[in-house]
Every structure is written in structure tokens, then in C-alpha cells.
Design goal:
Helix content is about 35%, strand content about 15%. The chain is an alpha+beta fold. Among the domains are: about 190 residues, Glycosyltransferase (Alpha/alpha barrel), CATH 1.50.10; about 140 residues, Glucose Oxidase, domain 1, CATH 3.50.30.30. The strands form eleven sheets. It has a four-stranded parallel β-sheet with strand order 25-26-27-28, sandwiched between helices. The chain is elongated and about 90 Å long. Keywords: Calcium, Endoplasmic reticulum, Glycoprotein, Glycosidase, Hydrolase, Metal-binding, Unfolded protein response. It comes from Periophthalmus magnuspinnatus. Its cofactor is Ca(2+). InterPro entries: 6hp_glycosidase-like_sf, EDEM1/2/3, Glyco_hydro_47, PA_dom_sf, PA_domain, Seven-hairpin_glycosidases.
Length: about 700
């Protein structure tokens, strides 16, 4: 599965965004745990207004910073930039074993992880075996100096999201005590499920195991409990976890899932919905469904979430079943990006790359500030909040980076690892049982192997139904031909009654009946024509060099960082002598006089290639008042990396009357421009030779909410 070449630009942009966020933390906040991106300083407990429980984990541990310099290339910082001691140890040990780097490493991170694990164990000293929700790492739980130990309740996800890390610690260190306690906590939650509905509640008493809150869903309070049952099976190979997950999953699909919605119900009476809104944490669930192989509801729910982001720019912390804002805060949560990554991995559908592109652009427009990225206090107003949680660095950029990366571009085989809920990597080699000999997806039901590799349109058919576009079949056949190469095709009558021969002639394609072309032949060729595409592209001589041009997007959020390679024209304004740039209009076919010239006048116009000649389009758009034209290739998937640049030429006659600048973009580069226009409506660009590319605008400020 390969990312289209036209999306490579986003991979580099994500690295730049990570550098901006992480660099801001190091410059303004270190050694504090978190960055306050509006104040440009670190958040230190006791020095800022208390936010309640959320601040109790702060202790100047440098949670956001990598705890160990692994001496790896910059992109490897994605693999562990929080307190992921085990993930960092796994990476260090991997490179040490490869014999090229890290030969000095002596498991220091593993020793730190084991020490931390022993400090956490007193939390499990309860009657039930469910852990306390808080622990003082110096004094434990019950020591008077700990100032905790009075808590009686914990959330299901809080108690059920330790098995991956604790089991990994046990198997890496050889001390089974950690995995033992994590398994016992899962056993308690499983045994306390509602036996008739097979659902669990949201909050449970840690001493007697009684449910305190009996509402059941897949979002906040429960989410990662389900996630860890499935991933524990993948990581550890124990079928007990898979059996439990499947029983829970069947209950979820029976009572909670009402595609594309995921509701909350009462665990004892699951036909009763307990609220009319959903929370943003459930956005992880389509990704979990992908791991199980249940693709249809995953696609449906993900698409619902994407529509919510289109309406509100980000996922509100909570939103109604009618997609209205219930709680407008957005903390830069990564769950939607996570599910987007999994769906792209499973389907190979480039639609999910465009979703990822939207996430990147919205972060830059609506969350980027001079000192990092700021959470949104209310998506309805766009006001910022002075916080950049550490999960934003640990998860968001990692999933986006992987989304736009091919396997060959990664320093590790990503399929050999399982992501924890904080996006740290643990190796599946930890399994004590024989791992499956084939891809996990192969044996899931329905199998993505059958759904996607043999039917790549399946995901789209779920989203919006297949739309058969057979009107342009003949056009696609014609324009897929190289110049000076003849092909034989059989042409039916066109829909409007105009014979296909005349229709294709109007597109600049010359045709000759094969009977005439093969005079003297006894073979009957009625209705079959020899077809030749009139050359619109310059066949450059060896001594004639095509000067690469660019389309540089300079308005926010692009600020010159997005640069698209373009081909020049042999007619129109000579851009090697003067650059040109102004806002663009929406794309036109432009094969006839344009009536609505108000939107075109004074703008660079976009024109889709096909149906008529470049010169004809240029004349019509120039007459309508366009100040330039960017032509976009109609051949899906074409890009400047795989296709040689060329110069557009005229229609055989004089083109002296065409005086506006003209450039040509292949399909991939053109799609980036079209997506930018759809998102931002007006985009300012520069058209100029590549050698005169302008420096990026590096100064950033908070952009007004539109």
C-alpha cells in the first residue's frame, strides 16, 4: 500500500509541525511537564491556577520531553516523546541488536521502568484487586504524607488499561508481579459485567466491585478497556482476551452501535438510551473495529465524525446526535487521526489521506500559535486555551506521520508492534504463544483481503454509494493515448444524439474510419476508427530544456510552505521575466464563452484539462477577465515525480492573442490546490519559475476564526 506521491508534501509538513511544537516546549517550558503555548512558559504545579484532578499528575517530570536521547535521526522522535520508558527501551534495544548504534546502552530505561512499576504496585492493595485511581510515587497510597487513599471509585478504563504496559514490563524484566496484578484487575471487570447484556458500566467501586455509574458506551470512562482486551490478544497471544473482547463487541453492536452513531445505554436495560450526545473519545472506536476486521461500521462511524469536523472544524468534546455542539472544547485529541490511519492501512483508499490532509491544515490554521499549538476553548468561537497536552505530541503527530509514510520510509517494521493507548510501541514478539503465521487482518471477518484488495471501491460505496461515471469513458480512452500512436476503438452514438466521431473531433482528436485507413483490406471494420490525439504537449528536443515552474501557496495557513511543481506553456506571459500571483477561482471546463464572469475577473482561474484544447480554454478565460490560468491534469494519479515535465503548446494557429500566464499541474498537485480552495475558499498563490521560489513565511500568529 503506497501513499500517492502528491501527498509526500504533508509528511514533511508534519515533521515541521512537530519541530515547532516540540521545539517550543524545549525553548519555553522544559523542565516543566507541559507547555502553556499562549503564555510561552511551562506549567508548574502550584504556580498556576489549580485545575483540580488534571494537575495532580504534574511534578516536573518532563513528561513531554523524551527521557532519553536515543541518538537516532530526527523522525524517530515520533516513536517516544512522553514518559514511554518501555517504548524507548524497545527502540534502544532494537538498534543495539542490529549492531550499528546504541552499543553503549545497558538497559537503563528498563531499570527505570521497573523502578516505576514497583512504585505503582501499592495502588492494587484493595479488597477487589482493582487499583486506586491515584498513587503518590514517593509515599504510596495509605501513608499520611501521600494525601490520597480516600478514593473509593475508579473508571472502567482507568482500571482496565494497564495490561499491555504491565505485561510488557514483566516479560522484559522477568518479574511476573506486574502482569499478575493487571490481569487480576481485568478479571474483576469481566466478572462484574452485566451477565445478560454483557456490557460494563463507567465507574466502579474499587473495594466491593459495585457499579457506581451504570451507563455504558465506548467513549470516556470505558474506551481503552475494550481497546486493551483486543490489543492484549494481539500482543500476548492469549485467546482469553479475544474471547472476552468478542463477547463485549457483540453486545456493543447489538445495543450501543446504531450506525453511524455510537450511543450510551443503561447496562442493565440496554434498550434505553441514557443521553442524546456523544463524546469525542469514541473517535478511537473505528480504528479498533478495523483491528477486528469489521470494516463497514468503522467506515460509517468515521465518516460521521468527519462530517462533524467539517461542520465545526474540530471534534467538539461532546456533540449531539444531530451534530450540534454539546460541549465546545477541543483539546487537540488524536483519536480521530488514529482511526483515519487504521482505515487507510486497511483499505488503501486515498480518501483517508485527504482526511489526514484536512486534519493537518486545520491544526495549522486554527490551533497553531507562535509558541506551539493551543487547545480550542470553544469550537463555536475559536478562542484558544492555554494548554498543549503531552498526548498531542505523543500521539497526534505519530499517527499523521505514519499515515503519509510508506513502509520503506520507516526505520522499523511497524507491523511488528502494537500501539498502546498512548501510541507507544510494544513488540508482538513478547507473546508467549505462537503468533499467527499470517496478517491479523487475513482471518478477520469480513476479511479486508477480500473486501479491499479485490474491490477497492468498497469503502466509497459505504460512504456515499457508487456513482458510475460512464459519460466520460470515451474521453478517458482518447486522452490516455500518447501522441502519434494510433489505436482502434469502437465508438457508440453519444447520449445527446451527436455522433461520437464529431464529439471527439470537437475535443481536438482526429479520427479516420479504419476502412479508409486500410484501403484494400478485405476485413470489415464498420464502426471502428483509427484515433490520433492532436498534440497539445511539446515533445522537447534533447537540447531544449523545460524550465520547471511552481505554484506557491502564500496565504495562511500555507505561508509559502506548500510548493507545487508545474509545467510552463510556450504561449502566454513569460513567467521567467515576471512572476504573477493573486487569489484563485474555482475550476472551469472553459470550452466555451463563460457567462458568469464576476467570479473570474481579476483572479487566476483553474481549468480542468480535457474536452477542448489548452489554447481554447485560455482564450475563453482571458476574455472573461482571468489574470492567469492553472491547468490541472484530468488523469487520476498523475504527478510530477513520476511524469516528465512538458511545455503546453498551442492549437496549431497563432497564440499571440493569449497574454496571461499559464502553468500546468499534474493531478496529484492539482488535487492539493483544489482541496485547499475547498477548505479556505480563497488561496493566494505565486506563479513563477522554480529557481525563483520565495522563502517560506515563518512568522505565525493566531488566525481569526472564519
Amino acid at each position: 500500500m503506497h501513499s500517492p506521491k502528491c501527498f509526500i508534501i504533508y509528511r514533511e509538513q508534519i515533521i515541521e509541525m512537530f519541530d515547532h511544537a516540540y521545539g517550543s516546549y524545549m525553548k519555553y517550558a522544559y523542565p516543566a511537564d507541559e507547555l502553556m503555548p499562549l503564555s510561552c512558559k511551562g506549567r508548574v504545579r502550584g504556580q498556576e491556577p489549580n485545575r483540580g484532578d488534571i494537575d495532580e499528575s504534574l511534578g516536573t517530570y518532563a513528561l513531554t520531553m523524551m527521557l532519553w536521547c536515543l541518538c537516532l535521526r530526527r523522525t524517530l522522535e515520533f516513536w517516544d516523546n512522553r514518559i514511554g520508558l518501555l517504548g524507548a527501551h524497545v527502540m534502544a534495544d532494537l538498534f543495539r541488536q542490529q549492531g550499528e548504534r546504541m552499543q553503549w546502552y545497558r538497559d537503563e530505561l528498563l531499570h527505570m521502568a521497573k523502578d516505576l512499576g514497583h512504585r505503582l504496585l501499592p495502588a492494587f492493595n484493595t479488597t477487589s484487586g482493582l487499583p486506586y485511581p491515584k498513587i503518590n510515587l514517593r509515599y504510596g497510597v495509605l501513608n499520611p504524607l501521600s494525601r490520597i487513599g480516600t478514593e473509593t471509585d475508579t473508571c472502567t478504563a482507568c482500571a482496565g488499561t494497564m495490561i499491555l504496559e504491565f505485561a510488557a514490563l514483566s516479560r522484559l524484566s522477568g518479574d511476573s508481579v506486574f502482569e499478575k496484578h493487571a490481569r487480576k484487575a481485568l478479571d474483576v471487570l469481566w466478572n462484574r459485567r452485566q451477565k445478560e447484556s454483557d456490557l460494563v458500566g463507567t465507574v466502579i467501586n474499587i473495594h466491593n466491585g459495585e457499579w457506581i455509574r451504570r451507563d455504558s458506551g465506548v467513549g470516556a470512562g470505558i474506551d481503552s478497556y475494550y481497546e486493551y482486551l483486543m490489543k492484549a490478544y494481539i500482543l500476548l497471544g492469549d485467546h482469553v482476551f479475544l474471547e472476552r473482547f468478542n463477547i463485549h463487541y457483540n453486545a456493543i453492536m447489538k445495543y450501543i452501535s446504531q450506525p453511524p452513531l455510537l450511543l450510551n445505554v443503561h447496562m442493565h436495560n440496554p434498550t434505553v438510551s441514557v443521553r442524546s450526545w456523544m463524546d469525542s473519545l469514541l473517535a478511537f472506536f473505528p480504528g479498533l473495529q478495523v483491528l477486528r476486521g469489521d470494516l463497514k461500521p468503522a467506515i460509517e462511524t468515521h465518516e460521521m465524525l468527519y462530517q462533524v469536523t467539517k461542520q465545526h472544524k474540530f471534534l467538539p468534546e461532546a456533540f449531539t446526535t444531530e451534530f450540534r455542539v454539546h460541549w465546545g472544547q477541543h483539546l487537540l485529541r488524536p483519536e480521530f487521526a488514529e482511526s483515519t490511519y487504521y482505515l487507510y492501512k486497511a483499505t488503501g483508499d486515498h480518501y483517508y489521506l485527504r482526511v489526514g490532509q484536512s486534519i493537518v491544515e486545520k491544526l495549522n490554521v486554527y490551533a497553531r500559535v507562535p509558541c506551539g499549538f493551543a487547545a480550542v476553548q470553544d469550537v463555536r468561537t475559536g478562542t484558544h486555551e492555554d494548554r498543549m497536552d503531552s498526548f498531542f505530541l505523543a500521539e497526534m503527530f505519530k499517527y499523521l506521520y505514519l499515515l503519509f509514510s510508506e513502509k520503506s520510509q520507516l526505520p522499523i517494521n511497524i507491523d511488528d508492534y502494537v500501539f498502546t493507548t498512548e501510541a507507544h510501541l510494544l513488540p508482538v514478539s513478547l507473546s508467549t504463544k505462537q503468533p499467527p503465521s499470517e496478517d491479523l487482518f487475513t482471518h478477520s471477518c469480513p476479511s479486508p483481503e477480500a473486501l479491499f484488495r479485490n474491490n477497492p471501491t468498497f469503502a466509497k460505496s459505504i460512504r456515499d454509494g457508487l456513482q458510475v461515471q460512464d459519460v466520460s469513458d470515451i474521453i478517458q480512452k482518447a486522452f490516455s493515448l500518447s501522441w502519434n500512436i494510433y489505436r482502434e476503438i469502437e465508438l457508440p452514438l453519444h447520449d445527446n444524439g451527436m455522433e461520437s466521431v464529431e464529439f471527439l473531433k470537437s475535443m481536438g482528436i482526429s479520427l479516420m474510419p479504419l476502412n479508409e485507413a486500410m484501403a484494400g483490406s478485405s476485413k470489415e471494420h464498420k464502426g471502428v476508427y483509427q484515433i490520433k490525439l492532436v498534440a497539445e504537449l511539446s515533445q522537447t528536443n534533447e537540447e531544449e530544456e523545460v524550465v520547471p515552474h511552481i505554484v506557491q501557496l502564500i496565504s495562511p495557513p500555507f505561508l509559502g510552505r506548500t510548493v507545487l511543481t508545474a509545467g510552463p506553456a510556450k504561449f502566454g506571459m513569460d513567467l521567467t521575466k515576471q512572476e504573477h500571483g493573486v487569489s484563485q477561482s474555482l475550476p472551469y471546463t472553459a470550452c466555451g464563452p463563460l457567462k458568469n464572469t464576476i467570479e473570474i475577473k481579476g483572479h487566476i482561474a483553474l481549468a480542468l484539462r480535457g474536452v477542448c484544447m489548452f489554447a481554447a480554454k485560455a482564450r475563453h478565460l482571458q476574455d472573461a477577465g482571468a489574470t492567469g490560468v492553472i491547468f490541472i491534469d484530468h488523469r487520476e494519479g498523475s504527478n510530477s515525480n513520476d511524469s516528465p515535465l512538458f511545455q503546453m503548446v498551442g492549437d496549431g494557429g497563432s497564440t499571440a492573442d493569449i497574454t496571461i500566464p499559464l502553468v500546468f499541474l499534474f493531478s496529484c498537485e492539482g488535487q492539493i490546490l483544489l482541496d485547499a480552495l475547498e477548505e479556505h475558499h480563497n488561496v493566494d498563490v505565486l506563479l513563477l519559475p522554480q529557481e525563483r521560489q520565495k522563502d517560506s513565511w515563518t512568522k505565525h500568529s493566531s488566525t481569526p476564526w472564519n
